[in-house]
Design goal:
five-stranded mixed sheet; binds pyridoxal-5'-phosphate; alpha/beta; 12 strands; seven-stranded mixed sheet
Length: 439
């Protein structure tokens, strides 16, 4: 079959024809890569459902394989292009060694870049690898970083434990308090690092306004979009400079791998790639394949998860056994400043306080039959856990109170199951609290 025939006409752009023409290519700013001439390149204006299925796919010229082959190799034959890449410092664009780059990585990177509306992406061995590489690459000793005091635990530890000894000072603020963020800005502030929806209370920082503030101060805004995914928010379009993900969660979507991703302009990604090389957080070719496969259904999964979480939130909000529900759709003081038009949806997470404190919440979780009691989130199966005895167990009662975590708080990651089954299961578990007390 001719290569021409494999390319569908609508919305698809022609790829490069030779590796050597890469740096002169006029489309480079739009498809900054790395990609090969065999990757399917789609305009960023194509809808997310289509991008999720097709963007980046490596179309194997030899076999016509439908779907990206797994390039399970650590190294590649050296040729003129490889030597030229070494001498030009272009090792990110030529297959040389898998820690530098591999076509399995490039295919899934292009898909993630397309979904986030960015020009270049990097996949890494975990979300923390993506975040650590990004923070180190975009700051230097003597600089200052602003983040949230309730940012993801691993990120908090990196910023709080490692940054001071690396010569970076960090100020932690309430991510929804724009005045506090403004007050924390210093001439030496290099990055602001915030999440699009926080864990576990689903606070929604005003990303667009924070981006403006960062731009005014010539600082970069790094946004962790793990909880929302590009289906619900595209932070780059709101002015963020770099987006990071724990691809372990929604992007892969099946609780079967650990991965991270970074997306943004090529000039930032080149720096972050170089840092990731030194940290060594490479994503294995097989994991790239699994991530790419999982991503094909991202739009379907996330829509269902948005809907399931919304229905669960609405149900729980009116239950007398529940003291409070956290979900942006329900409104309330917490969401007074919500930039509604920045969101296509609010994701699959919902958290709520069971009356009776942690013991009641534990008993309630034991009565649930559908979700697994496990940490993590974003998979097709619902997961439920308590921050107090998992992710936030190291915090004192005072720290929990400062963030707003009260006794009895449960975090629910809605999967793609039938929502009536999920709600009936919640109802049964809450009823069981009445019958059996706090068993
Ligand atoms: C899970 C998570 C991380 C860390 O990702 P890993 O893949 O576990 O390293 C970072 N940020 C957020 C918001 C997360 O939920």
């Amino acid at each position: 079959m001719a290569d021409e025939q494999r390319r569908t006409a609508i919305g698809f752009e022609e790829g490069r024809t030779t590796r050597a023409s890469w740096f002169n290519d006029l489309t480079r700013s739009r498809f900054a890569g790395p990609v090969t001439e065999h990757n399917r390149l789609l305009a960023r204006s194509v809808s997310p459902e289509t991008l999720a299925v097709h963007a980046g796919t490596y179309e194997d010229p030899l076999t016509g394989s439908v779907g990206t082959p797994i390039f399970q190799t650590s190294t590649f034959l050296l040729d003129d292009a490889s030597y030229a890449a070494f001498s030009d410092g272009a090792m990110r664009d030529v297959p040389i060694y898998t820690r530098y780059g591999n076509p399995s990585q490039w295919a899934v990177q292009e898909k993630i870049a397309a979904l986030e509306g960015g020009t270049s992406a990097l996949v890494t061995s975990s979300g923390m690898s993506a975040i650590a590489s990004t923070v180190y690459a975009l700051t230097n000793a003597g600089s200052h970083i602003i983040s949230a005091y309730d940012v993801y635990g691993g990120t908090y530890n990196l910023l709080h434990e490692d940054m001071p000894s690396a010569g970076r000072e960090v100020t932690f603020v309430d991510p929804t308090d724009l005045d506090a963020i403004r007050a924390a800005m210093r001439p030496e502030t290099q990055i602001l690092l915030f999440e699009t929806l926080t864990n576990p209370l689903l606070k929604a920082p005003p990303i667009r306004e924070i981006a403006e503030l960062a731009r005014e101060h010539k600082a970069l805004l790094v946004v962790d979009n793990t909880f929302l995914t590009p289906l619900n928010m595209q932070p780059l379009k709101l002015g963020a400079d770099v987006v990071v993900h724990s691809a372990t969660k929604y992007l892969s979507g099946h609780s079967d791998l650990t991965a991270g991703a970074v997306v943004g302009k090529r000039k930032f990604l080149d720096r972050i790639w170089a840092q990731a090389l030194r940290f060594g957080g490479t994503l294995e070719p097989l994991a790239c394949f699994l991530l790419e496969r999982g991503l094909k259904t991202l739009a379907l999964r996330v829509r269902q998860q948005n809907e399931n979480a919304r229905e669960i939130a609405k149900y729980l909000a009116s239950h007398r056994r529940i003291a409070q529900v956290h979900h942006p759709e329900l409104g309330g003081d917490q969401y007074a400043g919500l930039e509604r038009d920045s969101y296509a949806g609010f994701g699959g997470m919902v958290s709520f306080e069971v009356r009776g404190g942690d013991d009641a919440a534990l008993a309630f979780m034991r009565h649930l039959k559908v979700p697994y009691v496990a940490t993590s989130l974003g998979g097709v199966e619902s997961l439920v856990s308590m921050p107090a005895n998992t992710s936030h167990s190291s915090l004192t009662a005072r720290q929990c109170a400062l963030i707003g975590i009260r006794p009895g708080l449960v975090r629910y990651s809605a999967g793609i199951e039938n929502v009536h089954d999920l709600v009936r299961d919640l109802e049964d578990a809450l009823d069981a609290l009445d019958d059996g007390g706090l068993r």
